[in-house]
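Worked example

This section walks through a single chain of length 144. The input is the sequence exactly as stored; nothing has been trimmed or padded.
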Amino acid sequence: MREIATGRFIANGEAVLLLGPPGVGKTHLAVAIGREAIVAGYTVLFTPATTLVAQLAKAHADGRLEERLSHYAKPKLLIIDELGYLPFEPNAAHLFFQLVSRIRAWRNAGHLQSRRWRMGDRVRRLDAVMMPLPWIGWYVGLWL
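Given that input, the structure is written out below as tokens.
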């Protein structure tokens, strides 16, 4: 937990899964980690999985899915609480997958940006090829 509290996992693009039965403090720990991330200067968004999926489904029905995906993909740390307690409907699972894919693409673009800073023009020529590569998003508390 001390290592996780440092926030290095955010900078390294690593996922943190907090697993356990109900009532052992997973949400409490996720909130504490999120608070420390905010203190360290990261943007953080906390949402229950049911709220996330409901908002994605509503946005999809209203034709605003891209906007809602961007909202959830933007923070450096996305904390999804209670994931796995209730099964997703097939359409909801598809929308969740779209969010994960969006986060991967955005974060990959950020990693490319840091490579460009180090390597210069050689990487710039590869932008069109490298931008869509997948990247695993930042998640604390994917309760599976």
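What to look for: The first helix runs from residue 2 to 5.
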